[in-house]
Specification:
This protein is α+β, with helices and mostly antiparallel strands and about 800 residues long. It contains 16 helices and 49 strands.
């Protein structure tokens, strides 16, 4: 007891401050009291425990946070549901081994308890904050490997390295995560993140009391399906343990990097990494959010894909269960078999790949079976609808079989094979189709052979026509090249269809001026029609263009391998002598700026259409920044580069200025600043720094233009000299943002959606890049209804600020190239 008296005397003689690193103790003994203003430091000085107030709240909570990271980042909260209203809080360990937090003063009310009492006598309970962030209570005379209580068993919203995430099958204890209610309120929010142990275990995110909204998995031996696997991850290792005693996921750090996985208040799961240089948390990885991410989007036996205009389709051998609903874009009823199964016959199994496996809650698994044995088990059970290998390592092993309906299948660049049970009659139909197809091919081949002599006869005439066309061309150029040009020897051109100049000339009627539909920095764009009737857009490099081989090559590299419903599709290319031509799918409604900035055409675009366009642009950028095989920074996002198809779906175009980035290499510097005034972020315009946040800034400008129908650059108002950003900011501060909306939307707008769009846009155009959200957060903010953080002052909010940037740019020897609409 003498030791305790000495410690108490020392504590009473020192003034402690909240979150102070200089006033701390590292161990709590029996009956030791820690008052608000005192912190306990972990043994490795990574974490601290004490009382804190989150955000703007004045409530006090007992919690654990990072000691050396500013601002305060909390990873665990004890009294989430019962805050203390003043700074009278006390933390205590009783002689029975119970952790208590209570308010001081006369009431001395217990506001949180660990509710765990040591039953054995002669126990000396000791509490300690470990450097893993785990607050533990040990028997001072016992084994420290088995604490009698630990905070890791009662997680909040944060998964730390070394923490088990799952279920103890012996005790029944589940370790799952619940979101905070808001950034200022750590009480239990609306979302839950858990490991479901029914069938083969998998991970879900869902709204509390409402069921699942998103599914991750299942585990394939290396990682969860749908999340890219890094074979040589230098930062952390992962494990997923499934045995008779417990089921859990855990990750461990390999370096001094600081990482955490957090369930955000808006339901998003993010893996964040601390940047020591900037003292910021940056996204390392997160769960993909798109039209296919929501659980069961396409219903039973439906498959969801972001590569097609409509996300849902039926698996082969299945038709929509309710065609009327399916045709009205309600896919929840899913699909049904064309041919019913007959267990008395020998059903066959159709192999598919490139999908994330269906929900495994109605499944059975065995880790030691071969794939052949797995098929036998499935055949022997009439309720079995599919089977697959459980583990992809070493050529595949284990058995996973599904019963009843297959739910939540998503297309993904992933090649683990799934075998779906099909009726024998369906196999017969497939065989008949295959025979008819081969017969048709034979007929076509005979027809082709019979026409061969005719084609040879006209070939010479065609060659002469192309030569005449080329000779008639535009004279000499600085960038003469052909298909064998050394700078264009890359895999992208080998994968992309090559169009002959003759074919393009025929499609555009020799580039007739009547077929010209626009012109941009690269050159004129023509409408064309191929022999098969397909309508195309032909972008031809102009002899007066400041662009050339680099931009042509860049566009091919950046877009040839990208497929997304909100990106314009590159169909092919042509290189012939001096000609460099790109062929795209044709967009019936041309570009977004031709609608929103035109008073007559603008009235044709009501608010629901504009809101859908905003969502589509955001999803397209999300794909570029996060989900594509090549991560892309566009660098020239603007209304003129958003094309609209026949159904007014937005498609991002013009990748001539885009740049690739890999992993965290998402910040770069250039001395040649290119883009369009009014859309360029300040750090890019002034210092040549561009990043994914540069695209976010441009997106924010586009959103404000869509809402207002006004251009940012050149905007005028009789009461002030602000541009559109400044005007939107002024209205926001006056709590009058709705006045920004275009008058043409008065009969169709939804006030909550308009105000939310303006708010999100102002977050995107904040002056400092670190203040702007990622495009993933933007997508989530647009689809959710929760509170949004207040925006800070935007960049370039007056016309004078643009002129100042022009002056600074010239002094720092940077060049801003003003590109016109394309």
């Amino acid at each position: 007891m003498e030791v305790y008296r000495i410690i108490l005397v020392l504590l009473s003689s020192i003034i402690f401050f909240i979150l102070s690193c200089s006033a701390a103790v590292d161990t709590v003994y029996t009956n030791h009291r820690i008052k608000d203003g005192t912190t306990i430091v972990s043994d490795g000085e990574t974490y601290e425990l004490g009382f804190f107030s989150p955000g703007k709240s004045k409530n006090r909570y007992l919690g654990i946070w990072y000691k050396k990271i500013s601002p305060c980042t909390v990873v665990w909260v004890a009294n989430r549901q019962t805050p203390i209203k003043d700074a009278s809080g006390v933390f205590q360990v009783t002689s029975e081994g119970v952790l208590l937090s209570h308010s001081g003063g006369n009431s001395n009310t217990v506001i949180w308890s660990s509710n765990f009492t040591v039953s054995a006598r002669n126990v000396n309970p000791v509490a300690k904050l470990l450097d893993s962030g785990n607050l533990v209570v040990w028997d001072g005379y016992g084994n420290k490997e088995n604490p009698i209580w630990q905070s890791f068993d009662y997680p909040g919203n944060t998964l730390l390295p070394g923490m088990k995430f799952g279920k103890d099958l012996i005790t029944g204890r589940e370790r799952y995560f619940t979101s905070w209610k808001s950034p200022d309120d750590p009480s239990i929010g609306f979302y839950k993140f858990w490991v479901d142990t029914n069938g083969y275990p998998q991970i879900f995110v869902g709204e509390l009391g409402q069921g699942e909204t998103l599914r991750v998995g299942p585990w394939n031996g290396l990682g969860f399906q749908g999340i890219p696997v890094e074979n040589k991850n230098p930062i952390f290792s992962t494990e997923f343990v499934v045995n008779q005693k417990e089921i859990y996921y855990r990750y461990k750090l390999k370096s001094t990097t600081v990482q955490r996985v957090i369930l955000m208040w808006d339901g998003m799961v993010r893996r964040l990494q601390s940047n020591k240089r900037t003292q910021e948390w940056v996204d390392y990885a997160n769960v993909v959010v798109d039209a296919c991410s929501r659980y069961g989007t396409c219903g039973p036996f439906g498959s969801c894909s972001m590569k097609s205009s409509l996300p849902c389709s039926c698996l082969e051998g299945f038709d929509p269960r309710v065609p009327e609903e399916w045709n009205s874009w309600d896919w929840s009823s899913g699909c049904q078999r064309k041919k019913p199964l007959d267990c008395r016959t020998q059903d066959f199994f159709h192999k598919i790949s490139g999908v994330i496996f269906p929900d495994t809650r109605r499944s059975w698994y065995n880790e030691s079976m071969s794939l052949g044995e797995c098929e036998m088990v499935c055949r022997s059970n009439c309720s079995c609808t599919a089977y697959a290998n459980l583990d992809i390592r070493n050529g595949g092993s284990g058995c996973l079989i599904w019963f009843d309906e297959l739910m939540d299948i998503k297309e993904y660049d992933y090649y683990q094979e799934l075998y779906i049970r099909m009726a024998t009659s369906e196999l017969a139909a497939k065989s008949q189709f295959s025979f008819n197809k081969k017969k048709g091919i034979l007929v076509v081949l005979l027809s082709v052979l019979s026409a061969a002599l005719l084609l040879c006869a006209v070939a010479y005439a065609c060659r002469k026509k192309v030569k005449r066309l080329h000779k008639k061309g535009r004279g000499s150029r600085a960038h003469t090249l052909d298909k064998n040009h050394t700078s264009l020897q890359m895999d992208n051109l080998d994968e992309l269809p090559f169009f002959s100049l003759h074919k393009i000339a025929e499609a555009t009627d020799n580039f007739n001026i009547d077929n010209k539909i626009g012109e941009g920095g690269f050159g004129p764009v023509y409408k064309g029609v191929l022999e098969n009737g397909q309508v195309i857009a032909v972008k031809r490099l102009s002899e007066t263009s400041q662009q050339g081989v680099d931009e042509f090559q860049n566009e091919v590299i950046c877009i040839a391998k990208l497929q997304h419903r909100n990106l314009v599709k590159l169909l092919g290319y042509c290189i012939h002598g001096n000609e460099m031509i790109l062929i795209y799918e044709y967009m019936d409604n041309k570009s977004l700026d031709s609608f929103i900035f035109d008073e007559t055409r603008g009235s044709m675009l009501d608010w629901p259409q504009r809101f859908r366009i905003i969502h589509g642009i955001a999803r397209g950028i999300l794909y570029l920044h996060q989900d594509s095989r090549l991560q892309i920074i566009h660098r020239d996002l603007k209304a003129g580069n958003i094309l609209l198809d026949s159904e007014m779906n937005p498609k991002i175009s013009d990748f001539g200025l885009a740049r690739k980035f890999v992993g965290h290499d998402d910040m770069a510097k250039t001395k040649k600043v290119v883009g369009t005034h009014g859309y360029i972020s300040p750090e890019y315009a002034v210092h040549g720094h561009f990043s994914i946040k540069s695209d976010v800034f441009s997106f924010g400008v586009v959103v404000l233009e869509i809402v207002s129908g006004k251009k940012n650059r050149g905007f005028s108002h009789e009461a002030h000299s602000d541009n559109l950003l400044g005007h939107a900011w002024r209205l926001y501060k006056e709590d009058n943002s709705i006045e920004l909306m275009s008058a043409s939307l008065r009969n169709s707008y939804v006030m909550s959606e308009v105000l939310r769009s303006i708010h999100v846009a102002l977050l995107c155009v904040q002056h400092h890049a670190e203040d702007r959200p990622t495009i993933l957060s933007v997508v989530l903010m647009l689809i959710s209804k929760g509170a949004l953080p207040p925006p800070k002052q935007p960049a370039f909010f007056t016309e004078e600020s643009y002129r100042e940037v022009d002056t600074v740019s010239s002094l720092e020897e940077y060049m801003i190239t003003l590109l016109h609409a394309r």
